[in-house]
Amino acid sequence: MQEDLVEQLDAWHEEDEYENIVNAIMEIPAEERDYVLVSHLGRALNNLERYSEAIEQFLTVAEEGEEDPLWHYRIGLAYYYLDQYEDALREFEMADKLDPEDEDTLEFLEDIRSKLASEEAESEEDSNDEPVEGAAEASADTAPAGLSVIAAVSDAPGADETGFWNDNEQALALYVSEPPTDEQISAVEEKLVFKLPASYIAMMKEHNGGIPYNRYFPIGNSGEAYIEISGILGIGSEKKRSLCGEMGSRSVIEHGGYPEIGVMICDCPSDNGIVMLDYRESLNDGEPEVAYVDKSNNYQITKLAANFEAFVSGLVRAQTVPAAE
């Protein structure tokens, strides 16, 4: 039955009959639509320039689409035409990782990076035209506890008070939880067998996990190498990408064969590495370092920062990172 429907959907797509596709799939109850049908629906909504609706549909199958370059490409397309370039960049970069050298993807990436660079330049010109005496000191003084450095280094717009977090639909669906209670923090620490850094806990009490605008951390002295994070895991187990969630620290370390040096704090777009709190030097009573563990290079461990707060303040935005050749 579905094979006949999919065949008809393909025929309508070839004939540019996108409304027929939408109408046919919308007649099916939402709980009965599988990944294939939702993908057809999202693509048709994109072609009808109903981009917000397309994003809403794509996000209902976000977990199934994680390893599908077409899912990332199509939702990236919707973000692009809504002028949500940071979100579009993230999705097209992931599409490129999963399906390298696709010409359409590379064209979008080049255009998005150009637009973001232009926006950044305009923003800097505006700030230079209207300097505010003492603005830096004021932002640091008024930032929530544990977030003074984050507020000072982040200039990206966002729904949260600090401007650090990109609270898009994907972040809210996969990462962001309610602020943890002290009891929840203790329970998570007990499961992980590690005491979490005070700066991380303070940050999570303000905004519990999510996708930051600044997602690149430079490594080495050349300034040309960097690692990219997908998001920062929050404290809890409810969301898939939280410390004790389905794709949390224990699960990823055990199934990925990573060394038992601490806690995974950030996941990365590829499956080849993770960012961890490294307790080897500090043990459980001190402040852990932050390290990148490269699974593709025999689990090589590279120190990124002396502590979590230094790691977060060292993250940079996409347009400051050299484009891949």
UniProtKB/TrEMBL annotation:
Bias (Acidic residues) ranges: 119-132
Disordered: region residues: 117-141
One Pfam family it belongs to: SMI1_KNR4
PROSITE patterns: TPR
Superkingdom of the organism of origin: Bacteria
Keywords: TPR repeat
SUPFAM superfamilies membership: SMI1/KNR4-like, TPR-like
TPR repeats: 69-102
Protein name: SMI1/KNR4 family protein
Originating organism: Paenibacillus chibensis
Organism ancestry: Bacteria, Bacillati, Bacillota, Bacilli, Bacillales
